[in-house]
Design a protein that fits this description.
Blueprint lengths: L6 H23 L7 E6 L9 H6 L3 E6 L4 E5 L3 E7 L4 E7 L3 E6 L4 E5 L10 E3 L14 E2 L18
Antiparallel strand pairs: 1-2, 1-6, 2-9, 3-4, 4-5, 6-7, 7-8
Length: 161
């Protein structure tokens, strides 16, 4: 038994559970209103599955947009699979929750950022307003997310008055 509580790991698990619950609801009911997701994930994660041409083009990470067209969304305890359209080429993906670096719903200015598991930042997760894209995307796209320094954002900024 440890002499400390691993809050960072507990927070990671809670945030991944939140993503899973959101995706389960979308699987059952579709995307409501203007909701859409930007999901950045580690393409080199050993359990991530994507077409070779995508992993060649995005060897470290890529951001997918789940908005107007997607197919075959399946949600499990470990990750989710989905088919997305990449330039008129539907491609299946499997994204383990452990591979997710950011999960953003710009329609409601909600974002989660998972820190990289290195020696100093292992187990930290936070809500990060800076992860919110500033563009209004109308089609599914793939883009590389720029590297950003970690920044702590107060939860009070997300509370409604």
């Amino acid at each position: 038994m440890s002499d400390t509580i691993d809050y960072g790991n507990l927070m990671h698990n809670a945030m991944r559970s939140l993503i899973r619950n959101v995706l389960l609801d979308v699987k059952d009911n579709g995307l409501p209103g203007a909701h859409h997701f930007f999901i950045t994930f580690d393409t080199s994660h050993p359990d991530a599955e994507l077409a070779d041409w995508l992993s060649d083009r995005y060897p470290d990470e890529m951001t997918v947009v789940m908005q107007h067209w997607y197919d075959g969304l399946e949600v499990t305890e470990e990750g989710f699979s989905i088919t997305l359209n990449f330039g008129d080429a539907p491609e299946p993906l499997y994204v383990p929750y452990d591979a997710i670096r950011t999960f953003v719903d710009p329609s409601v200015e909600f974002g989660l950022r998972f820190e990289q598991k290195d020696e100093e930042a292992k187990g930290k997760a936070q809500i990060d307003e800076d992860a919110l894209p500033q563009t209004d995307e109308s089609e599914l796209e793939v883009e590389e997310a720029p590297a950003k320094a970690a920044e702590i954002v107060s939860l009070d900024s997300f509370r409604k008055s």
